[in-house]
Specification:
about 15% strand; 7 strands; single chain; 60s Ribosomal Protein L30, Chain: A; alpha+beta; about 45% helix
């Protein structure tokens, strides 16, 4: 919709239009009917606006403006899906500094979710651990997420600075979707905050 690139479907977000002309995110890409695909890079999210959505009127009956509301709908759907996925992963996740540092000794591929407001000492510990894993040829994916409170809510705790999940074998697909949704959620928050700031400045 924004950059006109040809990308694999799983790397983009499918959007569908309902009978009332509202655009909705189809995160699992299973909703019936025709859809369009939105590149979820930060650049494309920043570039997209109601003016660009006008192009959809050639194929769909949509109401405008609604891009600001669409961003909120996307954020909400991502939040719900992440909450469901993390709830299912609690039993096998390493949650908190001690559990995570122990899991980093595992040679298997890992996904790390680290809160943006994690303490400096923990950040240094994790970076050091990831550096040693990389030197040993172990694969790790690190995603910085919103906050300790947000990460804690996903995993049923009051406050969590870091979580590690296995990303090997049968768990690889789930870990990849979790990584992607966390990255998308972070980008949506950045764009939403930026749009809100610009509205206040222009107002």
């Amino acid at each position: 919709m924004a950059c006109r690139q040809s990308l694999p479907k799983h790397e983009m977000l499918r959007l569908v239009v309902d009978g009332d002309g509202l655009i909705w995110p189809d995160l699992l890409q299973k909703a019936p009917g025709r859809g369009v695909y939105h590149c979820m890079s930060e650049a494309c999210l920043v570039r997209m606006n109601d003016k660009r959505l006008q192009a959809l009127k050639a194929h769909f009956k949509i109401i405008l403006p609604q891009y600001s509301a669409l961003l909120l709908r996307i954020e909400s759907v991502l939040q719900q899906q992440l909450a469901r996925m993390c709830s299912l992963q609690r039993a096998c996740a390493a949650i908190g500094r001690d559990a995570v540092m122990h899991r980093l000794w595992n040679n298997a591929p890992l996904l790390l979710l680290r809160a943006a407001d994690a303490g400096d000492a923990l950040v240094r510990q994790i970076d050091d651990g990831l550096g040693k894993r990389a030197a040993a040829g172990c694969r790790s994916e690190l995603v910085d997420v919103a906050s300790r409170q947000w990460l804690g809510e996903l995993f049923g705790r009051d406050d969590v600075a870091v979580v590690v999940l296995d990303a090997a074998g049968a768990a690889a697909s789930t870990a990849e979707r979790l990584r992607k949704y966390c990255v998308w959620h972070g980008r949506i928050q950045i764009v939403t905050m930026r749009n809100g700031h610009e509205s206040k400045v222009s107002g």
